[in-house]
Amino acid sequence: MSALLTAALDLAARGVPVLPLRAGKLPFGNCPACKGSACGDRPNMVAAGPCACPRPCHAWAAATTDPATLTSPAWSRAWAQAQAVAYHPGGGGLTVVDLDHAEAVAWAREHLPATRTVPTTRGQHWIYRGTMQSSNGVRDGIDIKSAMSYARWLGPGAGMMTALPDVVRALLADKPRPVPAVRTVTVSAPAGGGQCPHRTPTYLARGIAMAEQRITGATSAIHATVYATFLAVLSAHGRCGCLTDSHVGQLFAAAQTKGESVRHCTDAWANALTRLGL
To answer: CB of 26 within 8 A of CB of 44?
Structure first.
């Protein structure tokens, strides 16, 4: 048994969901359908375990505490190629404040309550008890890794772990939201060139509003919800030409309010187009 798998099993026994990482601190995909982001999440190239696409079935979503899964033949192949162990902080009831450089560490020492700290290559991980939404870039050099995220396991660290403070939660609320990038969408005209049946302001506006509400109201599986919503919108409106760049911008903006990046939005939109043959 490899040292990485031994460490993973030890973490799993303590209730912390784990997964193997390949070179570049990237997760393994769980099946061929994950390749090239076909399941609606980031691309992965190597199969590692069971899958039920389309949904984010790898990375944080594949993290597990089940020793039978971790030592299964499929996962054993992944561990043989693994370069590190990762864990899903939110799944273990934890939040990691990832401080990426010395200035970020200095800021944390001045503004955040002391907790368990783990040295990283360029900075530190500060680990708190409690979960919250994950988000990158809440301040310069500071990321939040908790729900729907994974962090590299770098050892137990030092110090007593304290409860997640409001000042960390406030970092997410204070994060400036980027202006969503609007992707130019090209869709096919209706068969026969007839008039679009959706070209009524009320029908189309209601459909976009319902899609936005579905995304912003999601409390879990954000990646999968965004992908499924994009797929539903394109299924209803993608072939008649009634969607505009403004509509796409509204959907992207709704996704970004839930912490999605423009890249994830663009990938999910492109995957939905591909799946529908648009």
So the answer is: yes
- Give, for all 278 residues of the chain, the pLDDT tens digit: 789 999 999 999 999 999 898 887 888 766 666 655 555 554 443 444 455 554 446 677 778 898 988 898 878 888 888 999 999 998 899 999 999 999 999 999 999 999 999 999 999 999 999 999 888 888 989 999 998 789 999 999 999 999 999 999 999 877 655 544 444 444 433 343 445 666 565 677 778 888 888 888 776 667 788 888 888 888 887 777 777 777 888 888 888 877 777 777 888 888 888 887 77
* Two tokens, residue 7: 């460490």
Instruction: Please check whether residue 118 is in contact with residue 162, taking contact to mean a CB–CB distance below 8 angstroms.
Output: no
Q: What is the pairing mode between strands 18-22 and 84-87? A: antiparallel
Contacts for 172-177 with beta carbons within 8 Å, 24 or more apart?
A: 172/132, 172/133, 172/135, 172/138, 172/144, 174/138, 175/135, 175/137, 175/138, 175/139, 177/256, 177/257
Encoded amino acid at 254, one letter: A
> What is the distance between the alpha carbons of residues 171 and 175, in angstroms, rounded to a whole number?
6
Say how far apart CA 135 and CA 147 lie, in whole Å.
9
Strand, coil or helix: 219: coil
- Consecutive H or E run containing 17: none
Q: Which two tokens stand for residue 162?
A: 């304290």
Give the integer Cα–Cα distance in Å for 224 and 228. Answer: 6
